[in-house]
Amino acid sequence: MFPDDQGPPETAIAYTDQYFEAGVAKLDALFGAGYAKANPQALAAYVAACASNLNAFMTAASAMAGDDFDMDEALADLAAQFEAASEPAPKPKGRRR
To answer: Which candidate in 33, 36, 54, 57 could, as Cys together with 24 as Cys, close a disulfide (CB 3.0–4.6 Å)?
Structure first.
């Protein structure tokens, strides 16, 4: 469940760092450069939502764990979904009148 060179504390820090970096990128892409730095509460909410989502995933995954369940594979799938969701959103087009 954890990389060979990391235990739970190091893995938790790595996830938090990923969420932080993704939050800065996402908020700045949506609202303009420097938005995340100027609005740390928005960034904190983004990181908290990511952590909550991971907790829910881990809780559900552990409940489903059976002989054929592969936690590493499930985490890899979650990481791929996170990467896809972390890509900057396209800028909205102007309003039509």
So the answer is: 36
Joined tokens for residue 17: 């760092």
Residue 34, phi-psi category: left (phi > 0), alpha (psi -120 to 50), beta (remainder) = left
User: Which pTM does this prediction carry?
Assistant: 0.62
Total domains in the chain come to: 1
Q: Is residue 18 part of a domain?
A: yes
For residue 76, what are the contacts with CB-CB under 8 A and spacing of at least 6? none
Hey, CA dihedral for 26, 16, 4, 65, is it positive or negative?
A: negative
| Residue 81 within a domain | yes
